[in-house]
Amino acid sequence: MQRAWNKYGEAAFAFEVIEEIPLDKRLMIEREQFWMDAFEVVENGYNICPIAESRLGAKWDHPQTPEEREKRSVALRGKTKSKEHNEKVSRALRGRPFTEQRRQNIISALAKEDPNAKQERYKKLAQALRGRVSPMRGKTYSAEVRERMAQAHRGKPWTEKQRAARGLITGS
User: Fold this and answer.
1) Do the domain assignments include residue 52?
2) Closest CA to 35 of 48, 17, 22
3) DSSP 156
4) What pLDDT score does 76 carry?
5) Could you give phi then psi for residue 80, rounded to 5 degrees?
6) Which stretch of 12-21, 53-62, 75-84 has the lowest confidence by average pLDDT?
7) Would you say residue 54 lies in a domain?
8) What is the count of structural domains for the chain?
9) In this structure, is residue 45 part of a structural domain?
10) Which of 52, 86, 98, 135 is most buried, taking the most CB atoms under 10 A from its CB?
11) Containing domain of residue 65, as a range?
12) What percentage of residues in the chain have a pLDDT greater than 70?
C-alpha cells in the first residue's frame, strides 16, 4: 500500500468511516468480514487475507513451488538487513530452544565443515570474548554446588587435555 501511495499520491486514496459500531470484538470482526466481502478487498484491494482476524487463506499461505521460491530468492538477493533489525530478531529468538530438526541440521552442517574452519571459528570467538570479565569473577560456588559438581564428574575419565593440564601426560 505504501508503494501505491508513493506512486499515485494522496489524491488516489480515500479514507472514510463506513460504519460505526460498539467496541465489541466479535461484532467488529463480523462487520469487518462483511465489508471485506462487499468491497472484494482481496481481489480489488490491498488485503492478502480473505478472512477477517485470520491468516487462513492468505496469498502466501499456500506451499510455494520451486519456481516461486527461486523468484523470491532472486528478488531478495543482495538486500541486507540493518544492524538494528538483526539485533531485534536476535533478541526475539534468544532463549528459544532448537527444534530437533534444527539441531540435526546444525550437526549435519558441522560434520561437513572443513576441519580448519572449526579452528577459525574458535579463533574468532576467542577474539570476540577477549577482554570480557568472567561472570564468575569474585564469586565462589557454595559447598552444596561444589559437591553436586564433583558427584557429576565422579567415575568419568579425564580427557587428554585435562590430563595434560594436570601434568599427568609427559612428552614421549
Assistant:
1) yes
2) 17
3) P
4) 87
5) -105, 150
6) 53-62
7) yes
8) 1
9) yes
10) 52
11) 25-70
12) 93
Q: Which of these, 52, 9, 3, lies nearest to 29 by C-alpha position?
A: 52
To the question of pTM greater than 0.85 for the whole model, the response is no
Cα separation of 109 and 103, whole Å?
10
* Inter-residue contact 31 to 19 (CB < 8 Å): yes
Closest to 20 measured CA to CA, from 40, 2, 37, 35: 35
Contacts with 28 (C-beta within 8 Å, 6 or more apart), sequence order: 21
Give the chain's length: 172
Q: What are the φ/ψ torsions at residue 171 (nearest 5 degrees)?
A: -65, 135
Distance CA 134, CA 122 (A): 18
Q: Are 47 and 36 in contact (CB under 8 A)?
A: yes
Asked if 57 and 49 touch (Cβ cutoff 8 Å), the reply is yes
Task: Give the distance from CA 33 to its chain's centroid.
Answer: 32
The answer to whether 21 and 28 have CB atoms below 8 angstroms apart is yes
Q: How far apart are CA 14 and CA 43, in angstroms?
A: 18
Q: Three-state secondary structure along 12-32?
A: HCCCCCCCCCCCCHHHHHHHH
CB neighbours (10 Å) of residue 86?
Answer: 11
